[in-house]
Amino acid sequence: MTWHVPADTVRAYVHGRIADADAWSVEAHLSSCEQCRAELAAEASHVPALMADVDSRWSAVAADLPAQGRVRRGTVWRELVVLVTAGPAARWAWLTASLAVLALAAGVGAITPMTGGGELPLLGMVAPLVPILGVAASYGSGLDDAHEVIASTPGGGLRLLLMRSVTVLAASSVIAVAAGLFSGYGSPVPWLLASLALVMLTLAFGSLLGVGRAAAAVGGGWAVAVTVATLDAPADAIPSLLTVEFAPVWLVLAVVAALVVTVRRDAFDHIILTTRH
Amino acid sequence: MSTPTVIGTHVEVRDLVVRFGKRTALDGLDLTLDTGVHGLLGPNGAGKTTLMRLLATVAKPTSGTVSLLDHDLRDHRQLRRVRRRLGYLPQHFGYYPRFTVREFVEYFAWLKEVPADRVPTAVDRAIERVGLLDRADDKLKKLSGGMLRRAGIAQAIVNDPDILLFDEPTAGLDPEQRVEFRELLRAIGVDACVLVATHLVEDVTAACTDVTLVNGGRSVFRGTPEELAAAADDSVGGDSPIERGYTTVLRAARQG
Ligand SMILES: Nc1ncnc2c1ncn2[C@@H]1O[C@H](COP(=O)(O)OP(=O)(O)O)[C@@H](O)[C@H]1O
Ligand SMILES: [Mg+2]
Ligand SMILES: [Zn+2]
Predict the structure, then answer these.
(1) Which residues of A touch B84 (CB under 8 A)?
(2) What InterPro entries does this protein's entry cite (chain B) (predicted)?
(3) Ligand 1: does its nearest atom lie under 6 Å from the Cβ of B198?
């Protein structure tokens, strides 16, 4: 476009000092020229009465729009619900699977009490794995069909990951505590702290490897460590990783991992692929 | 209502190189874009999707610079600000089958940090612009391929982006929907910088104000569709002047 509305014509238009025919041609040009619209807006912003008029007309138009279908009001609560529950389809599979695994572990644990003859304390071993898998299932880019778009949004990085991890941790803790009470497993504090630490470690490694791979690495590491600790422990004792004495170690690990996540938070600005695209 | 702002250069790409192992997907590409509808045309494997992913801030280049809306993408805050002004429809895009159209578009409105009080209006306006308002409360799994594509377009425009990236957007649309889509492109291109990556020559003929032709990760032509048609050598075959122009430029690039 080579011709633009001259500055004094823009001014005359804004202040209403322009002939109708000229106003029409100005408007015709404005409808297809961003530059002149911007100049008009800049000029108009110096006229408070005009801005107030535009605002009130806009509000009136907006208020008059009929509600169509199931429109929900935009609130912070609504935002939280949408962002947390919109994870990949895998999240229901995860919830069902974790319930089943924990029920099974608690059931086996109840039938063969762990302090009896050296059987594995299954619930304690399995429970900390559940939230790790949950974080991977609710955020892992390989599982979320829309992750490519999500990665291009300002809200799709660490903030979304933390929102979902907290939800997963809360849900799995409730399930695990309930299973623990039901099976008479004893204090849930050690393995709740272990869960917290493992989730934080998943996020910390996730800043390097991507959340999916980090979940696999941390989950695998836990499985090896707890098996070794169990074989290592005297036949009638709880494996050291799950004792109350060990709990402070988990706490320290969780804090250190949280620090790593804070320092490396920019790494979540870009997706770290877990699958080839 | 959004106040119009004067924006400098929308997209500025300098000497962009992307390598995947030994394979070079982008090989020193330069590109400058402002408002309007721009075509990014090239054969499969030319590097279009790779470029779109960089512009969408999803991936990072091996070397070279990308500046969007005069912002430095290496700075976390500036990156966030740019992302609020971006719309992106990837080539391959999964949908959440259990979501309704409205929930799906709303999800992206929140992710793009549209102000809370504007979310409901922004969502319905985007759905209306792609002509899906009568299906807004239907689950995505009940929609046809073309409708899903339009839902994808709605999420891309829900934040009234300044930069809009469409990667092979007409795949799955029938001829009538393609015409409607091009009209939508022209309407959005008045205020925004719209980049349409496609391997279909007819997509750029109808809707684009200019065309960048890429081949082997390099830009081999930049001009209007008419100029591309004028580049045609009479000896090459093709259904339309612009298709012949496309083939001529590509052949020259491959020989040179
Ligand atoms: N993630 C990836 N890993 C390895 N090679 C890739 C990857 N993405 C693209 N490529 C390669 O880069 C080249 C350009 O691909 P692409 O950008 O998808 O082209 P287009 O979209 O123009 O068809 C191709 O040779 C493709 O095989
Ligand atoms: Mg492609
Ligand atoms: Zn003008």
Answers:
(1) 154
(2) AAA+_ATPase (IPR003593), ABC_transporter-like_ATP-bd (IPR003439), ABC_transporter-like_CS (IPR017871), P-loop_NTPase (IPR027417)
(3) no
Check if B50 has its Cβ closer than 6 Å to any atom of ligand 1. yes
Closest ligand to Cα A27 = 3
Ligand 3 centre distance from Cα of residue A40 (Å) = 10
Q: pLDDT tens digit string along A160-193?
A: 888 888 888 888 788 777 777 766 666 778 878 8
The tally of domains found in chain B comes to 1
Q: Is residue B237 part of a domain?
A: yes
The minimal CB distance from A271 to the residues B58, B111, B190 is found for B58
**CATH number of B207's domain:** 3.40.50.300
CB of B218 sitting under 6 A from ligand 1: no
Please enumerate in sequence order all residues whose Cβ is within 8 A of that of A76, keeping only pairs 6 or more positions apart, or say none.
B116
> Is there a domain that residue B6 lies in?
no
Q: What is the mean pLDDT of chain B?
A: 89
Q: Which atom of ligand 1 is nearest to the CA of B46?
A: 22
Ligand 1 mutation pick, B19, B23, B48, max ligand atoms within 8 A of CB: B23
Tokens, residue B214? 């890429």
Per-residue pLDDT tens digits for A217-273: 999 999 898 888 877 776 666 777 877 888 899 999 999 999 999 999 888 887 654
Measured between alpha carbons, how far is A261 from A203 in angstroms, rounded to an integer? 7
Which of the residues in chain B have pLDDT under 50? 1-4
Q: Structure pTM?
A: 0.81
Name the band, by pLDDT with cuts 50, 70 and 90, for residue A73.
confident
Q: Whose CA is nearest to atom 27 of ligand 1?
A: B45
Q: Which helix (DSSP H) or strand (DSSP E) does residue A139 occupy?
A: helix A129-139
Question: Is the Cβ atom of B23 under 6 angstroms away from ligand 1?
Answer: yes
Place A81 in a pLDDT band, splitting at 50, 70 and 90: confident
The range of the structural domain enclosing residue B46 comes to: 38-52+82-255
The answer as to whether B89 is a domain residue is yes
Supply the pLDDT for residue A66: 58
